[in-house]
Every structure is written in structure tokens, then in C-alpha cells.
Amino acid sequence: MIKTGIDLLEIERMRKSAKNPRFVSRFFAESEIEYFNTLPDPAPSMAANFSAKEALGKALGIGIFKIIPAGAAVLRNKAGEPYFEFSGKTLACTKKSGFKFSVSLTHTKTTAGAIVIAYK
User: Which helix (H) or strand (E) holds 112?
Assistant: First the structure.
């Protein structure tokens, strides 16, 4: 079985939201925040990661608020390929689903997006 989720987000909207520390800590894992802090302009990556969390919720058929967004860290390997690292309630939810996940991120000057493929 294969399920998909996709999401798009305006980068400027993320830039504004990211000014609120409570928003950042609610939606991003510490490992993501550390990565964002290495970037000259973190807003495009933040928007892409947020889109990946939304797409994950869609692929699971439960939405973003049934998982804990900070429990679905979107990280990059040495080659730059994104992947999920789950923790807490989100880890339990994804394990219960029985799916494995693949994520792809993209952004332009104004918009970021992600697609998640859930497969068994």
C-alpha cells in the first residue's frame, strides 16, 4: 500500500511565524532548530520542513495536529537528502501505522513545498 501527502507554504508567512519563539518550539525539534541556525536565511528551509510535517499528516490521513509536529524532525543526511526522525507520540503514531516514509522538499523564492510517500 502507498499513500501520499503534499503541502505548499509561502515562505514569507513562515518568516513572520518564526519570529515567535513559542511557534518555533512547538513545530520544530531542537535538531531542526540547530540546523536552521546554520543558515543565512532559515525561512525557506523552515517552510519546507513545516510543509513536510503537514504532508506527513496528510499521508497518514490524520492531519498535523494528531501528531506532535516537533516529534517529526525533518533532517538532512550528508548528501543533503531529507529524512524524518520521529520521537515521542509521533514515533508511536508512525510505528502504529506500519508505514515507512520518504520525503522530498523544494522551494522557490516565494514558496516551499514537500511531498511525503508512505509505503509498506
Answer: strand 111-119
Beta strands (DSSP E) in 11-90 are: 72-76, 82-86
Q: What is the pLDDT along the chain (120 residues), one digit of tens a residue?
A: 999 999 999 999 999 999 999 999 999 999 999 999 999 999 999 999 999 999 999 999 988 877 888 999 999 999 999 999 999 999 999 999 999 999 999 999 999 999 999 999
For the record, the C-alpha cell of 96 comes out as 502504529
Q: DSSP assignment, residue 38?
A: T
Helix (H) or strand (E) holding 109: none
pTM for the predicted model, two decimal places: 0.95
